[in-house]
Design a protein that fits this description.
Helix content is 75%, strand content 2%. The chain has 391 residues and is mainly alpha-helical. A two-stranded antiparallel ribbon has the order 1-2. A hairpin with a 6-residue loop joins β1 and β2. The radius of gyration is 48 Å and the shape is elongated. The two termini are 25 Å apart. 11% of the residues are buried.
Length: 391
């Protein structure tokens, strides 16, 4: 009978789990510790700010359109909409162009011209004012007006008809009794008393009628007062709701305007940093070319720098070329000193981050802490060797 000291299936499963775990861990570490440039790190943030600027722009256009449309109340609806749209688009276009020019002066030229700054200040202030006023108008559309409820007024016709019929019956009974009890044009004493009772009953009915009419009038007045009071309360409630909503919309309009400016500022800062990073990478490439040519001993160092950066080509001894009209040199430095500093940085990077592939002995710059092989082919070869050794 054959016995096993260890279960081979368990050992195989452990090895498989070990490979899966380390494979996932290596992938995660490569993603976490992978070197990313500034443009890659803040690309999503820049896209988010661009989206917020679009939303802020739409909100500003809506509130401004509501405000400007009230300037043409007496005009036909088509002309009113067209004029409002043209004014809104013109103001927003001037604001965006002027603000862009100011941001360009700040981030590129390190100075701001007076006219674009004044134009941007006026258009931004006008846009904020129009947006705030438009936000104050919007609650009238969102919250409906108070509706005045008509009081339920009861008519007095039923009282008049009822008492008129009762009084007419009493008068008919009285007249009939008088005709029956009259003898030779005269009534007896007891018959006169009966007629007097009929007259008192008629007066009592008349007084009852007056009291019923008075009570009905008082009830109608109370209903009218209650309806008026309810209408006034509804008006006050609508006004309070509109004021609260107006405050919220005004704050929102101001926040959207500020958000638009912040988004524009962040976008310019992002692209300025990307431009700086791009220039630094180009300078590093030039430095590498200079180092390689110095190691080879070729006298073409100055020509390389002159090809890549013709504006700063002083290494070859040629005079500095004139700057272009739309560009400003931010730092006036000696190009020879720049090349020396970049050379030191490149050598430092080589010493700190360069590794040697254990498979093909090729030096390379690793991208993460677990970057061990120069290519995937070398990694697969090393894996095959380890599998052979395990067997």
């Amino acid at each position: 009978m054959t016995t096993f000291g260890k279960n081979p299936h368990v050992e195989a499963r452990k090895k498989l789990n070990f490979k899966i775990f380390h494979g996932r861990l290596n992938t995660t570490l490569e993603k976490k510790f992978k070197h990313q440039r500034f443009a890659e790190r803040f690309a999503m943030a820049n896209a988010a700010f661009d989206g917020m600027s679009v939303i802020a722009q739409l909100a500003s256009l809506t509130t401004a359109f509501m405000m400007l449309s009230y300037l043409f109340v007496g005009v036909h609806i088509i002309a009113r909409v067209a004029c409002s749209a043209v004014l809104v688009l013109a103001i927003e276009a001037i604001k965006r162009e002027a603000t862009n020019d100011v941001m360009k002066g700040i981030f590129q030229y390190k100075e701001v011209e007076k006219f674009p700054a004044l134009l941007a200040l006026i258009t931004v202030s006008a846009s904020i004012y129009i947006s705030v006023e438009g936000a104050k108008i919007l609650p009238d559309f969102f919250i409906s007006d108070a509706v005045e409820m008509q009081a339920s007024i009861q008519s007095s016709d039923a009282i008049h008809s009822d008492f008129a019929a009762r009084i007419a019956d009493k008068e008919a009974e009285r007249n009939q009794y008088r005709e029956n009890r009259t003898w030779k044009g005269r009534l007896a004493s007891k018959d006169a008393l009966v007629i007097q009772e009929y007259n008192e009953d008629i007066k009592a009915l008349q007084m009852e009628k007056d009291e019923a009419l008075k009570a009905l009038n008082e009830a109608n007045q109370s209903a009218q007062i209650a309806a008026t009071t309810a209408y006034q309360n509804e008006l006050e409630r609508v006004q309070v709701q509109r004021q609260e909503l107006g405050k919220q919309l005004v704050i929102t309009a101001v926040v959207f305007e500020v958000l638009f400016l912040l988004s524009l500022c962040f976008s310019w800062w992002y692209h300025a940093e990307c431009k700086k990073e791009k220039d630094e990478s180009e300078t590093a490439e030039v430095s590498m070319q200079v180092i390689e040519k110095q190691e080879k001993g070729t006298p073409e160092v100055s020509s390389v720098t002159a090809e890549v950066h013709p504006e700063t080509a002083e290494v070859s001894g040629s005079p500095r070329q004139h700057k272009k009209a739309s560009f400003i040199d931010y730092e006036e430095v000696n190009e020879t000193q720049e090349v020396t500093e970049k050379t030191i940085e490149v050598e430092k990077v080589k010493k700190e981050f360069t590794r040697i592939c254990p498979t093909c002995s090729t030096p390379f710059v690793h991208r993460s802490a677990n970057h061990k092989y120069c290519t995937r082919v070398c990694m697969i070869e090393a894996r095959k060797e380890r599998m052979k050794e395990d067997k």
